[in-house]
UniProtKB/TrEMBL annotation:
Protein location: Membrane
Listed PANTHER family: PROPHAGE BACTOPRENOL-LINKED GLUCOSE TRANSLOCASE HOMOLOG (PTHR38459)
Keywords linked to the UniProt accession: Membrane, Transmembrane, Transmembrane helix
Species of origin: Halothiobacillus neapolitanus (strain ATCC 23641 / DSM 15147 / CIP 104769 / NCIMB 8539 / c2)
Topology term for the membrane: Multi-pass membrane protein
GO cellular component: plasma membrane
Top-level division of the source organism's lineage: Bacteria
Ranges that cross the membrane: 21-46, 52-71, 92-114, 120-141
GtrA/DPMS transmembrane domain segment(s): 27-142
Protein's recorded name: GtrA family protein
UniProt xrefs under InterPro entries: GtrA_CellWall_Glycosyl, GtrA_DPMS_TM
UniProt main location, coarse: membrane
Length: 148
């Protein structure tokens, strides 16, 4: 391989790393935005409408789901051709609901069976669910279908 070829390979691999890093940063930003929306909806329903927190939480999740779905569809996992909603929406909904259930179950388990402070347990749970959600979304929910 000549020097020009080596430079092209290095530039291409550097660009691939940059694109992947950019995707992770956008994924984190969308996640933070969705979490803020979730929290705001729950806060509003509980403090302004006197709704029970456990009833407000699914409403917050539902509103935040749309922020997350469209943010990931058009940002984190953006493709040259937009992901077909008929395919991506049910897949991402399944990823999100499973993530929500795993979050609750794992958090409850860590609180019940470990001496971890609730904040540490929550951080661990959020990290695990975020990684699983990223991988599931990237390689399944928003996977780019090969051209036929």
């Amino acid at each position: 391989m000549d020097d020009g070829s080596k430079v092209r390979v290095l530039r291409a691999s550097g660009l691939a790393i940059w694109v992947r890093l950019q995707s992770l940063v956008i994924f984190a930003a969308v996640g933070v935005a969705a979490a803020a929306v979730h929290l705001a909806v729950v806060w509003a329903l509980v403090s302004q409408w006197s709704m029970a927190a456990l009833l407000a939480n699914p409403a917050g999740f539902f509103v935040a789901f749309w922020v997350s779905f469209f943010g990931h569809r058009h940002g984190s996992f953006k493709a040259d051709d937009p992901h077909p909603i008929r395919r991506a929406l049910p897949r991402f909904a399944l990823v999100a609901v499973i993530g929500f259930v795993v979050n609750e179950l794992l958090y409850a388990a860590l609180l019940a069976w470990t001496p971890l402070p609730y904040t540490v347990a929550l951080f661990i749970v959020i990290a695990i669910v975020a990684v699983a959600t990223y991988l599931s979304s990237r390689f399944w929910a928003f996977a780019v279908q090969p051209k036929q």
